[in-house]
Amino acid sequence: MGNDTELRRTGLFPRHQALGAQLAPFAGWEMPLWYRSGAIREHLAVIQAAGLFDTSHMDVFFVEGRGSLDFLNYAFTRDLSRIRPGRAIYGAFLGSNGHTVDDAILYPRLEDRFAVVVNAGMAPVVMAHLRELPGSGQVSLREPEPRYGKLDLQGPAAASILRKILPGAEQLFADLPYFAFRGDFILPGSRIRLEDGTPAILSRTGYTGELGFEIFLSPDRLGAVWDRLLELGKPDGLIPCGLAARDSLRVGALLPLSHQDIGDWPYVNHPWLFALPLRGDGTFSFRKDFCGAAALRPEENPHTLAFAGFDQRRVDPHEAKVLLEGTEIGSILSIVTEMGIGRIGADIVGLASPNRPEGWTPRGLACGFVKVNRPLPAGSRPLLRDARREIEVEIVGSIRPNRTAARRLS
Amino acid sequence: MKELSEIVIPGELRYARDHEWLASAPPHRVGVSDFAQDQLGDITYVELPAAGAVFAAGGEFGSLESIKSVSALYLPVAGKVTAINEALRDDPGLINRDPYGGGWIVEIAPTDPGQAASLMDAEGYRRHLGETA
Fold this sequence. Notes:
- The complex is a heterodimer.
- By secondary structure, chain A is an alpha+beta fold.
- Chain A is 16% helix and 29% strand.
- In chain A, strands 10-11-12-9-3-13 form a 6-stranded mixed β-sheet. In chain A, strands 14-19-16-15-20-21 form a 6-stranded antiparallel β-barrel. In chain A, strands 5-6-7-4-8 form a 5-stranded antiparallel β-sheet.
- Chain B is globular.
- Chain B has helices at 34-40, 87-90, 94-97, 122-132; strands at residues 13-15, 20-23, 28-32, 43-47, 54-55, 60-66, 70-74, 79-84, 106-110.
């Protein structure tokens, strides 16, 4: 276990231990997989109440200087020419071969200043990639020192819990749509202050598909805010949640995991085409030029598709093949058991679905993403086969119904 | 995660290195240990054998699917499955909540009743956990 000594730990590590977390290495960090409640209850809490995640392992870096906007507009897949202040934007950084370097959320700050949130351990990799791009000499790339602490408060009760520690929440929530953020990344100057004066950045994002916030804090305030949220959120059903629930929630919300669902192949033919600057005229053409664009040729590349099974059984994603009428057509990228959904007849029904029968408890459905060598229409029924079993799944356009991420706050 | 000292290991059962337990007195039930359920995390599906199926010692008689992984179940001694725990079909979480009680998996008729003696007792199993943890 010699490697364990090299794993990084967030400021909340002693709290994770005290909360009985099952810990595991993740991208160079020792992070909680689940706490005493277990991953199923954590997953369901985020759908029905709220969960609190330590996401301080995620990387942040800054792009600054005149020309930052043009530079990022070439480096990033989204069209930044029409960004609005106070709005975060999700997209990807691609290599010139069209492969995904990483996905990211961009936070435009003042003019020519951006904060970029990437996956754990990825800031050095993405920054090295950016330094190779034209125009990099005009901009400064740096990681903040110290790192931010970050908490994700996710679930339909997240807003009412946050109100308890956020003075002026009503006014703020009146104009805080999905993917809006408030506060500044130079924390001492941020006008978002928690009840005890802690400066914060509040972003209406998260990776669960449910209503929620990512809260960026100074690392020395992380523990106090974590404790306070868990204490005040308890009556609302708030529990700490680990990476296992985060993974099953994001799959149910049809969100990709970088380096698993998007990665070393061209970023095309997938459910996240909104992250490309498509003209929207029905042709596969872009509104801007960007790094990797020329390699995104739909006809020459595999297709990434979401699937949902008919019960909770999974197969081993590393060995399983995707079969269609006896022919092997691809492999599995992600497969989880989404415990908040089940089938009623042919329909996928969730715990938040208005049409769920009274007293109905879902048993969960296997779901995830496959990468196959041909397009398949929704409703197609390929088989997933490993040494143990073969399961039939359905290609779908959505997995967990009635998600709350974009719900109005007031 | 439970500390080793928190893992429950009943004295009246016998244990295999792969963390299955066997009741050495009839009915000879088989399940997985508290350590195993804690490591696996929430169980989402239990693949059960058919009643009447016969397995050699160490034979794979089913699998446990948890939120984290799919793990094979190995029969600690040779035997014939005489009953399966049907309650696990609706409530696989019984294995997490009550691994030695309501979370039993199968009942067997051992081919050689003496074979149970080759398994670890509670003290030996706790030592085994200490060595592997």
